Amino acid sequence: MKHFLGTTPLKLxxxxxxxxxxxxxxxxxxxxxxxxxxxxxNMNSQTESLLKKICALVPVAVISGRSRxxxxxxxxxxxxxxxxxxxxxxxxxxxxxxxxxxxITAQWKEHFESILESNPxxxxxxxxxxxxxxxxYRKCRRKKEAKSQLLQIVSTLENSPRLIMGKSVLNLIPMGxxxxxxxxxxxxxxxxxxxxxxxGDDDTDEDIFSLPDERIFSVRIGKKKLSHAxxxxxxxxxxxxxxxxxVQLNAExxx
Length: 255
Prior knowledge:
This protein is α/β, with parallel strands linked by helices. The chain is built from eight helices and eleven strands. It has two domains: about 1-90 and about 180-255, HAD superfamily/HAD-like (Rossmann fold, 3-Layer(aba) Sandwich); about 95-175, Alpha-Beta Plaits, CATH 3.30.70.1020. Helix 2 runs parallel beside helix 8 (about 240-255). It is globular.
């Protein structure tokens, strides 16, 4: 992995500004810091201002594990392309799968609530995202034990989910649902983009990082040996430096 703010990657970023590029981002841990309470996560004013400037210059998408309704409340209206639930929600091609996913998620929620009511795990939060379920254990004192208990419950579900491990969260997604990689490729078709730059921070973003598509350039927040991302940023705070560079290069091109 190469640091994306180094000399060679910045030349790549400059080249992308001269092609029809879709600039796409995850939200939590990328545009916004990871916080103890997911409901309190928001972009800082500088990031939001830069994102608005980019939207005025190029197509921008945010692809998140949050529900799309939740995600949209945290973004400026200038972001025209938003996808929620790890790729399931917000794609035109997935309308037929939405209803099935909603039914399965409701069953999972009922199952977890029933078990946790009789055998509570202190600090656990079950987040119903309508089309997927997130099990947060960030507030648990014994995180490893809580994670193990949650995985045991997951193993008893009637409709086995696709399980994606996040940062102190287990994401349960209906089998066969589209993932972030499919979402990005569909958005490229919709916007007519010939290239895409995607920035994410978590295992949920590996569906994009691992795409065997030379048109897509992936950047991970935080260097990780086992990641498929080609580039990395040292920390979440570097996102502002990257956004500034994207604004600068695309503004200069339009002069």
